[in-house]
Amino acid sequence: MENSVKKWHKKYGDIMTLWIGNKSVITIHDSPTIYATFLKDGEAYTGRFLTDASAIARNGRNGVILVDGDLWREHRRFAIHVLRDF
């Protein structure tokens, strides 16, 4: 898939929409646009994109990697506290 995305980037430019199943994924391929987009409207890009396969693999658990929101903040605070004293 990586090679396909590179080809599409050359053909369609720095911003494009990919469809993964029934989910649209917008990709941005240049640093200034990424920075400006997240700085200007970062709240719109919060949350994790979860596929059906990842939901099945998680089996209702969040873990550390696929968590976001308040639970992410709680995990982050805990990890910083523990690692600071390590």
UniProtKB/TrEMBL annotation:
Listed name of the protein: Cytochrome P450
Native source species: Panagrolaimus sp. JU765
